[in-house]
Amino acid sequence: MIPDDTRAALRAAARAASAHAYCPYSKFRVGAAVLAGSGKVYSGCNVENASFGLTICAERSALAAAISAGETELAAVAIYTPTGMPTAPCGACRQALNEFGPGMACECTCDGPASIDTTLDILLPSSFGPRNLPAM
After folding, report:
1. Do the beta carbons of residue 62 and residue 89 sit within 8 Å?
2. Up-side HSE of residue 66: CA atoms within 13 Å toward CB?
3. 59, 71, 99, 107: the active-site residue
4. How many domains, the chain?
5. Residue 58 has what pLDDT?
6. Global confidence as pTM
7. CATH value at residue 10
8. Is 59 a catalytic site residue?
């Protein structure tokens, strides 16, 4: 269980990160923040590219920031979208997050009153991950 003050800090970090999104094509500013096992929070935003397949989602941007700082375990992710209804992470982000915290808390917020409060294993049932590979 993530304490309420930590959850609030994650939501605030995700919203703040969305202001830095580079999204000239979609105009869809997304921010995300991950809570590492160390207790530190890392945020990221979406970074679009004219070659749309090279776009980096906010969740993977936050994940990359955490990994770049040496973190390897994630406890939670918060995602903010400037919409009336919350938006859950895309499939690629679900898979990327699964690598570092298959049971992590996942909270998606927006400009409206609704939110999604779940866990990654609910969003990505029967996931494939490191446990599926033979030990090396």
Report:
1. no
2. 31
3. 59
4. 1
5. 98
6. 0.94
7. 3.40.140.10
8. yes
